[in-house]
Each structure stands twice: as C-alpha cells, then as structure tokens.
C-alpha cells in the first residue's frame, strides 16, 4: 500500500522526483563504462567523475529542487496547522520571517548535505567495484570477465542505491526542516507517525503515536531491547525510514492521557503532566 500524502509527511512526487534524478545519474555512469573491458580503468573513470564541474552543478541543482519542494510543502502543512489551532498568529509570523531565521540556514545546510551525497555517488560505486574486482581477481578470474559482471550488476545495484538515497534523504530533510520551523515557534515536541502499512519495522510501529521531544530523540530498537540498536534518532532520520514528525502544535487537540517518550522509556501522561514538561522545554511562548 502506497503512503498517501498528508500534513507533515513527504509527498510521493518529491521522493519519486529525487529518485528519478539519481537514477539518471547512475544511468550516465553506466554509459561511461559500458564499453570498457579493463576493471581498473572503470574504477578510475568513476572516481574521476566525482570532481567534474558538471557533476557538482548537477548535484547542487538536484538537491536544491528536492529541498525547496519539501520546504514549500512543509510551509503548507504549517499554514494548515495555523488555521486549525489557537497558535495560528505565532505560526504565520514565523513563516513570514523564516527565510531570515533558522529555517533559511537549515534549507542551505540540507541542500549542501544532499549535494555532497550526490557528488560522491560515483566514489561510492567505485569503492564497491574495487572490492568486487579484488575478490574476483584473487579467485583467478580474467579482467574481461570481471568487467562484464560489473556491467550486468550495475543497473540493479545502482537502482537500489538510488532508491535508498531518495527515500532516506527526503525523509531526513523533511524532518530537519520540520524541526527548524518548530523551534522557530517554540514547539518542543512532535508525534512520531508511521506509514501504517506492513512494511513498517516493528520498532517504529511501537513508536507510532508517541510524543517525542526534539531535544531527546529515542532509539526505537533499544526500547525493544533489540541487538545492535543504533544511536538515538528522530522519525524519518534513519535508513529506509518512511516515518515522519507531526509537531504538537495544539496539545489539547490530542487524546489524553497520551504516550510520551521521556527518560529513555515510553510512559503515559496526562495533559497537565505533559504541559509541565512542555513549558520547561521552551513551549511556554505558545501555551495559554
């Protein structure tokens, strides 16, 4: 089941557009090495692409489009939240000044981060090719045979990599921009939301609907005592994650008591208990 666009989550068209641009780049990389029979030259050609001026321009423009589209979509979500809450004036004022505030800097940072990731994509592919060539050479295979394998594996492997980057980085960027806007209007917490389908990992399903404070991200895997749990992170900020952060713009509109992540565990709080923490963490500007 496809994730339907709603307030706060990433619009499928944005992720798909980013994926398409990355796939176009990987297809060009394949074209560059398609007729090469020497694996060593393949590797040098891929590494040489990383510093090419055209790739730097392509990477920046691709990143800029993705981040800008997410920023525009996010602004629409905030405007909708403003219409539906008692904090509308504060939110509208923040939207007016955001390009001069934290969100403007965050947009620039996300463009730069994604552009660098795109620019180094040929290096990532070159490193994986290097590992494969080393293993196969030790096994006694001929260079021409190894090169043919690389050409056959390239489309599927590069498509999978492009898909992973598009999904992961669009979600990461969306959460980063949501956080920047939330901090502009002193909203210290969000509700962790999942895509609510069968592909949601169990640890994230456990977080669905839980209020999380921006300054205290959880490790969903650690909460469930899973082995090799990653460090704490926010919704949408780990590989292949389709979760998203829905800011607690108007706390009384939520159902109470409510689950809240606090002090390393998920607890159930009343609105009064949550409000005490919310005020302490900086939400007092918007709390009546």
Strand-residue proportion: 5-15%
What share of residues is helical?
55-70%
Radius of gyration: 22 Å
Outline:
elongated
> What is the element string, with H for helices and E for strands?
HHHHHHHEHEHEEEH
**Contiguous helical run count:** 10
Q: If you had to describe this structure to a student in words, what would you say it looks like?
A:
The protein is mostly helical. The protein has two domains: about 1-185, no CATH class; about 190-288, no CATH class. The chain has helices spanning about 10-35, 40-50, 55-85, 90-95, 100-120, 120-140, 145-185, 200-205, 220-225, 270-280, and strands spanning about 190-195, 210-215, 245, 260, 265-270. α1 runs antiparallel to α3 (about 55-85) and α3 runs antiparallel to α5 (about 100-120). The longest helix has about 40 residues, at about 145-185. The model has no long low-confidence stretch (mean pLDDT about 90).
């Amino acid at each position: 089941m496809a994730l339907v666009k709603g307030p706060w989550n990433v619009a499928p068209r944005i992720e798909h557009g980013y994926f398409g641009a990355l796939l176009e780049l990987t297809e060009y990389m394949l074209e560059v090495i398609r007729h090469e029979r020497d694996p060593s030259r393949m590797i040098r050609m891929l590494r040489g692409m990383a510093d090419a001026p055209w790739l730097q321009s392509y990477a920046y423009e691709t990143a800029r489009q993705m981040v800008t589209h997410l920023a525009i979509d996010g602004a629409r979500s905030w405007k909708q939240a403003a219409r539906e809450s008692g904090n509308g004036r504060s939110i509208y004022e923040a939207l007016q000044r955001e390009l001069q505030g934290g969100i403007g800097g965050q947009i620039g940072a996300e463009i730069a981060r994604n552009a660098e990731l795109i620019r180094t994509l040929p290096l990532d592919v070159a490193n994986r090719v290097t590992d494969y060539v080393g293993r196969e050479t030790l096994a006694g295979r001929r260079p021409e045979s190894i090169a043919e394998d690389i050409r056959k594996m390239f489309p599927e492997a590069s498509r999978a990599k492009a898909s992973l980057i598009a999904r992961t980085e669009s979600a990461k960027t969306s959460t980063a921009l949501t956080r920047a806007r939330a901090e502009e209007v002193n909203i210290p917490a969000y509700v962790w939301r999942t895509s609510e389908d069968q592909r949601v990992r169990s640890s994230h399903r456990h977080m669905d609907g839980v209020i999380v404070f921006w300054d205290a991200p959880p490790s969903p895997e650690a909460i469930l005592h899973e082995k090799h749990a990653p460090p704490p992170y926010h919704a949408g900020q780990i590989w292949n994650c389709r979760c998203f952060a829905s800011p607690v713009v108007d706390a009384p509109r939520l159902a109470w008591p409510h689950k809240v992540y606090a002090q390393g565990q998920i607890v159930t709080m009343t609105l009064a208990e949550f409000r005490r923490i919310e005020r302490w963490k900086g939400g007092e500007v918007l709390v009546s």
